[in-house]
UniProtKB/TrEMBL annotation:
Membrane-topology annotation of the record: Multi-pass membrane protein
CDD domains: PT_UbiA_Cox10
Catalytic activity: heme b + (2E,6E)-farnesyl diphosphate + H2O = Fe(II)-heme o + diphosphate
Known EC number: 2.5.1.141
Pathway(s) of this molecule: Porphyrin-containing compound metabolism; heme O biosynthesis; heme O from protoheme: step 1/1
Role noted for this protein: Converts heme B (protoheme IX) to heme O by substitution of the vinyl group on carbon 2 of heme B porphyrin ring with a hydroxyethyl farnesyl side group.
Other remarks on this protein: Carbon 2 of the heme B porphyrin ring is defined according to the Fischer nomenclature.
Protein name per the record: Protoheme IX farnesyltransferase
Family annotation (InterPro entries): Protohaem_IX_farnesylTrfase, UbiA_prenyltransferase, UbiA_sf
Group of enzyme by EC: transferase
Organism whose genome encodes this protein: Sphingomonas colocasiae
Coiled coil segments of this chain: none
Family: Belongs to the UbiA prenyltransferase family. Protoheme IX farnesyltransferase subfamily.
The entry's keywords: Cell membrane, Heme biosynthesis, Membrane, Transferase, Transmembrane, Transmembrane helix
Encoding gene (name): ctaB
Length: 301
């Protein structure tokens, strides 16, 4: 796949188009998990430096989103879900998007290193490169396992937040990384089931397109099992207390129920909401709640 050659822009890009390049809906979850990693890290950090670290995570995520849209403009033009983004809609030229993404990348990494430490900056740089090069350019157009491996890109923020405070990485942030990493396939495959026609039209080998709906539904449930183990693990390992442990069991138990419904029951016309759509919505709320429970546990301990 090569970057798209887009028609000349007929409407000048404004600040809203540059904001759209950063994928703000995705950024919210990235920023929140990074903030939680920062808040539960031992030792604390000056509020100004903490704010700067979270700002850098947000800018890095935005940079990755912009570079993703720069590279996938031709694919976005073929999908109803993405055809109104600034590049396929012709509101912005590719060069502007590329310069914006590269500039944000360098600025976020350098600012993180200067404000906190270079380990956090290095992990931030790896997360941007992983999302753009490994996931967007290499895995996504080539294999239905793209989101399994590529999910690591979205799992880095808790590590970055923790490292910004401590200058190191230990067992708890590694587990937080693992939770997000294992959460990503059931979360994203639920979306892929919902919009598989779009992916098929764009030629993206997502699992529902290549292996079919039934296999994808089973895989959603199977990947939820190790995710559930990772989500509960901080409590028995002594890395979190009972507030987190009880919350994790309850929230993850409901996630398992939703995943089982997707995996083993076909939707019917009588369903108010398709099971995969319900799971996708719940999965987003789940990650907010379970990371929030970790912060609450930390403050109450």
């Amino acid at each position: 796949m090569t970057p798209a050659t887009l028609p000349s822009t007929s409407i000048p890009a404004d600040w809203r188009d540059f904001l759209a390049l950063t994928k703000p809906s995705v950024m919210r979850l990235v920023v929140f998990t990074g903030l939680c990693g920062l808040l539960v890290a031992p030792g604390g950090i000056h509020p100004v430096l903490g704010f700067t670290a979270i700002l850098c995570i947000a800018l890095g995520a935005g940079a990755a989103g912009a570079l993703n849209q720069w590279y996938e403009a031709d694919v976005d033009a073929k999908m109803k879900r993405t055809e109104q983004r600034p590049l396929p809609a012709g509101r912005m030229d590719r060069q502007s998007a590329l310069h914006f993404g590269v500039g944000l990348s360098f600025f976020s990494v350098i600012l993180m290193g200067v404000a906190t430490n270079w380990l956090a900056a290095g992990i931030l740089a790896v997360s941007i490169l992983f999302y753009v090069i490994v996931y967007t350019m290499w895995l996504k157009p080539r294999t239905p396992q793209n989101i399994v491996i590529g999910g690591a890109a979205g799992a880095f923020p808790p590590l970055i937040g923790w490292a910004a405070v401590t200058g190191d990485v230990s067992a708890l942030p590694a587990l937080l990384f693992l939770i997000v990493f294992l959460w990503t396939p059931p979360h994203f495959w639920a979306l892929a089931l919902w919009v598989r026609i779009d992916y098929a039209a764009a030629g993206i080998p997502m699992l529902p397109v290549v292996a079919g709906e039934r296999t994808t539904r089973r895989q959603i449930f199977l990947y939820t099992l190790p995710m559930a183990a990772a989500a509960v693990a901080p409590w028995p390992l002594g890395l979190a207390g009972p507030v987190y442990g009880i919350s994790a069991i309850a929230l993850t138990g409901w996630f398992l129920v939703r995943a089982a419904i997707v995996g083993f029951r076909q939707s019917t016309p009588d369903d108010a909401m398709k099971p995969e759509k319900a799971l996708f919505a719940w999965s987003i709320l789940y990650l907010f709640l379970i990371f929030g429970a970790l912060v609450a546990d930390h403050w109450l301990s």
